[in-house]
UniProtKB/TrEMBL annotation:
Sequence ranges assigned to domain HTH cro/C1-type in this UniProt record: 15-65
The protein, known as: Helix-turn-helix domain-containing protein
Database matches in Gene3D superfamilies: lambda repressor-like DNA-binding domains
Protein species of origin: Ectobacillus funiculus
Signal peptide start-end: none
Entry superkingdom: Bacteria
């Protein structure tokens, strides 16, 4: 049986999406903590070829640090 991504019947595509799924973090929650738009978070979760600019990546990584309680690096999700 496939894992459902946010109950939409889709599997997580990117490392970021898989990480969010494992830690039960919704796109909306990450968007609120990082102050990055939900559209940007959605795009980063859906497309493997898309990477954020440095400013956006730092906001997302800082939010993940707060939510999970662990330090994250850019290379954990992109590259």
């Amino acid at each position: 049986m496939a894992i459902r991504w946010m109950n939409l019947g889709k599997l997580p595509e990117t490392k970021l999406a898989k990480y969010m799924y494992r830690h039960n973090i919704s796109q909306k929650t990450l968007s609120e903590f990082s102050k990055v738009s939900t559209a940007t978070i959605s795009r980063l979760c859906k497309y493997k070829a898309v990477g954020p600019n440095v400013k956006t990546a730092n906001k997302i990584l800082k939010a993940l640090d707060q939510l999970v309680g662990k330090k994250h690096e850019y290379t954990d999700f992109w590259m």
